[in-house]
Inverse folding.
């Protein structure tokens, strides 16, 4: 739990954690209006209403060389972002219900892999939510991800830019 501070996490494992309070966020990490840096870490089997691995609201969040697998949430199985998030050299696999990343802020993704994530609504890999949100993806792979809308990436507004990336075997119901 971090509020208005700086949290640095490295070489750590977050496994099987659950946020259980009403509208709970952040099975692994909950952060509000602070700075969070995560590197060389693993988030596996965590669950919450929002952000199974990490819930980030009003933060500057940086994630590098990390893995998010088998996390569950209503939105953002791996990460729920409502701030500025940069992800590099990371893997999102098998995150359920809310897909890999839910974005309602500014998200930059580079050299990362999204495989086997699912969302019951939008964006199996990444869900870019609102008109004010931005998403920039480069040199990344989206495969075998699924959602009702937007198997790899789904957006309901905002600006999305994708370059030098691969999309394969993603599915959308509609």
């Amino acid at each position: 739990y971090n509020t208005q501070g700086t949290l640095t996490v490295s070489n750590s494992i977050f496994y099987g954690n659950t946020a259980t309070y009403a509208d709970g966020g952040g099975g692994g990490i909950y952060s509000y209006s602070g700075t969070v840096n995560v590197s060389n870490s693993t988030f596996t089997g965590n669950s919450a209403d929002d952000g199974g691995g990490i819930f980030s609201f009003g933060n500057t969040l940086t994630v590098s060389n990390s893995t998010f697998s088998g996390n569950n949430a209503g939105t953002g199985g791996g990460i729920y972002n409502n701030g500025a998030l940069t992800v590099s050299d990371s893997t999102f696999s098998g995150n359920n219900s809310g897909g890999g990343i839910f974005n309602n802020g500014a998200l930059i993704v580079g050299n990362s892999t999204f495989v086997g994530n699912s969302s019951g609504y939008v964006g199996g890999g990444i869900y870019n939510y609102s008109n004010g949100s931005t998403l920039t993806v480069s040199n990344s792979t989206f495969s075998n991800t699924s959602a009702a809308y937007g198997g790899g990436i789904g957006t309901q507004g905002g600006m999305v830019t994708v370059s030098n990336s691969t999309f394969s075997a993603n599915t959308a119901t509609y």
Remarks:
- The two ends are 38 Å apart (CA to CA).
- The mean pLDDT is 96.
- The chain has no helices and 24 strands.
- The longest strand covers residues 54-64.
